[in-house]
Amino acid sequence: xxxxxxxxxxxxxxxxxxxxxxxxxxxxxxxxxxxxxxxxxxxxxxxxxxxxxxxxxxxxxxxxxxxxxxxxxxxxxxxxxxxxxxxxxxxxxxxxxxxxxxxxxxxxxxxxxxxxxxxxxxxxxxxxxxxxxxxxxx
Length: 138
Ligand code: CA
Hints:
By secondary structure, the chain is α/β, with parallel strands linked by helices.
């Protein structure tokens, strides 16, 4: 059994955020949640999560812009969460280096599968990461 990774979820819809938080925690991931882009960037810098789940439709600052800033200093895997009708933003995000995307309203099983896929890529790229990643406790 390997240690589970920490996932930063940036999502302004509190119901979706809560649902994702519970589901990830149940799978024993360490979960960090942010409701705004600014909060997300702060948590990313302070906690260095293994994977970022990024909603494209955020208030104040859009997800694509946030991803651009994130990519200027980090290559951490980013999984985009897009709403219907955000095709342009989705494409821009993928071109900016997002690793995958999932469209709302997704089934939690699919989200988990996509996270596991990103984890397999991470594992192949830098297996050493596994040693220093511990799920958040308490
Ligand atoms: Ca949103």
